[in-house]
Amino acid sequence: MSAQPLLVDADDASVVVSLNRAAVRNALDLATVEALHTVCARLEKHPRILALRLTKALIHAPRSAHPLVANLAQAVLFETEEKKVRMDAYLDRRTVRP
Fold first, then answer.
1. Beta strand 6-10 with 49-53: parallel, antiparallel or unpaired?
2. Which of 66, 10, 65 minimizes the C-alpha distance to 42?
3. In whole angstroms, what is the distance from residue 89 CA to residue 95 CA?
4. 50 beta partners
5. What are the boundaries of each domain within the chain?
6. Contact (CB, 8 A) for 18 and 10
7. Rounded to an integer, what distance in angstroms lies between the CA atom of residue 54 and that of residue 13?
8. Which of 49, 56, 59, 67 could form a disulfide with 14 if both were Cys (CB 3.0 to 4.6 A apart)?
9. CA 8 to chain centre
10. Does the predicted TM-score (pTM) go above 0.85?
11. Looking at per-residue confidence, does 19 or 93 come out higher?
C-alpha cells in the first residue's frame, strides 16, 4: 500500500493540507488531485479555514527563476507581507501543537 498523497491536520476551526509525495518532489498526480477534491468536498459540508503549503518544488523552473516564482506566489497568496507573517505564525503554532 502506498502512502497517502496528502497529510491533513484538521481541528474545529481550520484544516492544514500538506502534500506527502517527497519521493516525486510533490508532483501532482490523479490520486493527489482526487484527494484534494475530497478535502474540498468535506470543507463544503463543514466550512473551516483551509491552509495549503506549497513549495517551489511544485513548479519546474531553473534555479535562477526561483526568486521570481517566490515573489509571484507571495503576490498571489498574500497581498501583503503582514498577511504572510500572520499565516507563517499560524502554521508554526499548528506544527508545534501537541
1. unpaired
2. 10
3. 10
4. 15
5. 6-96
6. no
7. 21
8. 49
9. 10
10. no
11. 19
Amino acid at 6: L
Residue 98 is placed in which grid cell? 501537541
Q: Which amino acid is at 20?
A: N
Report the amino acid identity of residue 24: V
Residue 10 pLDDT exceeds 80: yes
- Following DSSP, what letter does each residue of the chain receive, concatenated? -PPPSEEEEE-SSEEEEEE--GGGTT---HHHHHHHHHHHHHHHHS--EEEEE--GGGS---GGGHHHHHHHHHHHH-SSHHHHHHHHHHHHHHHH--
Q: Which three cell numbers stand for residue 68?
A: 521570481
C-alpha cell at 82: 503582514
Pseudo-torsion of CA 19, 31, 62, 92, nearest 10°?
A: -10
